[in-house]
User: Which sequence fits this backbone?
């Protein structure tokens, strides 16, 4: 009986998460993909990933959870967009711009929340802002949510080796930015 109650609680919390963030997820996916059917595919894939990794979510109302959901749907939509672009190599669609899509809905990841939670200074937050979105996502998944490289690779639809290399390069870039700041 206890196990059934626990499973029901988990299912209820996941359903609440879906209900709360579904409009944001749909809007972001549509702004990136510009196609209703593809955006619904992205939302479905993101919901599956969110369900699979629901143990990483503590409080559905927290800013960290909102950032997490936002990152998952954005990465899923970008992944589908890239697959469609490869499939339609000879068609000339409007080029996708991550910055435009991100500014249309929620903006970028909230580095301020990440900094507050993990004690980063404003300077380190500024350094994180100098990284690409993919590199920031990898670092956020790794250090904010504690994902392994294998889990990150599944979430971002990249190979484990690619995630590991991007992680290493992002840390190297942060190191060089820090060294430049020390020289000033």
Assistant:
């Amino acid at each position: 009986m206890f196990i059934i109650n626990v499973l029901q609680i988990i299912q209820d919390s996941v359903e609440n998460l879906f209900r709360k963030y579904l409009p944001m997820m749909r809007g972001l996916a549509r702004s990136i993909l510009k196609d209703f059917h593809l955006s619904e595919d992205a939302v479905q894939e993101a919901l599956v990933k969110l369900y699979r990794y629901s143990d990483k979510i503590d409080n559905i109302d927290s800013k960290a959870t909102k950032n997490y959901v936002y990152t998952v749907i954005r990465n899923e939509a970008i992944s589908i967009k890239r697959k469609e672009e490869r499939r339609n190599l000879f068609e000339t669609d409007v080029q996708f711009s991550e910055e435009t899509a991100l500014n249309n809905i929620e903006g970028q990841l909230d580095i301020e929340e990440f900094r507050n939670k993990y004690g980063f200074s404003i300077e380190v937050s500024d350094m994180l802002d100098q990284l690409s979105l993919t590199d920031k996502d990898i670092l956020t998944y790794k250090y904010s949510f504690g994902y392994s490289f294998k889990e990150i690779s599944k979430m971002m639809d990249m190979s484990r080796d690619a995630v590991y290399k991007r992680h290493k390069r992002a840390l190297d870039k942060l190191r060089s930015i820090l060294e430049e700041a020390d020289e000033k």
